[in-house]
Amino acid sequence: MARPLIALKLVQLARELNAEAIAHGCTGKGNDQFRFETIILAKAPDMKIIAPIRDLNLTRNEEIEYAKKT
Question: Cα–Cα distances in Å, from 21 out to 37, 46, 48?
Answer without folding.
Answer: 12, 9, 4
